[in-house]
Amino acid sequence: MNMRSLAVIALLALACSFASAQTFGFASATGYLYCNYEQLASSGGFILGTDNLSLCGFANNAEIIGGTGKVPLLGQQYSVTVDAILADNILDVEAGTVTYMQACWFQALKCSKPDKNGKYHGKYGWITFAIYDGYIFGDNYGYLSCTIPEKGDDDALMRGTTAGKLLEKLRK
Questions:
Q1: How much is the pLDDT for 165?
Q2: Domain span including residue 72
Q3: Phi, then psi, of 67 in degrees rounded to 5
Q4: How many structural domains does the chain have?
Q5: 3-state DSSP: the chain helix, strand, coil percent, rounded to 5?
Q6: Is position 75 within any domain?
Q7: Residue 10 is assigned to a structural domain of this protein
Q8: Residues of the chain with pLDDT under 50
Q9: pTM here?
Q10: Phi, psi at residue 48, to the nearest 5°?
Q11: What is the per-residue pLDDT across 48-92, written as a single tens digit (0 to 9) for each?
């Protein structure tokens, strides 16, 4: 058996080991969906996936990597349930170039449930920060939704991605 065959077998074994797959939408603190959503696979505390930007009008998606973990102080300070710590290259994808900025977010791994009027209550499901040149700037937070944006949802498109506010603040 050659090295290429061994590499393919190893990759297939790794891919098959990710038994848990989840898709989440990002709802703002006021309950409106952003145009991006995440598709995660996890196993043994390790998480990887895609920050799907296709409905936002980008040709590429961002790649997610992270793991499960608890950050009790952060969760209490921001009223966020923290089950995972994740990062991706969404800022590079939005800018269309290497920005040397990194997005990192802390989130729950289960959806917030809206009431019969579609309003979310309780702890937020995610908070995002960005870092550039040793400085943390911007934040955005909201509820983790079991609903993802749909093609033709112009309102979600106008709100942009969960990181859009960060780039907007940086440009000014």
A1: 47
A2: 21-171
A3: -160, 170
A4: 1
A5: 25, 40, 35
A6: yes
A7: no
A8: 3-18, 165-172
A9: 0.79
A10: -140, 160
A11: 999 999 999 899 999 999 999 888 777 677 788 899 999 999 999
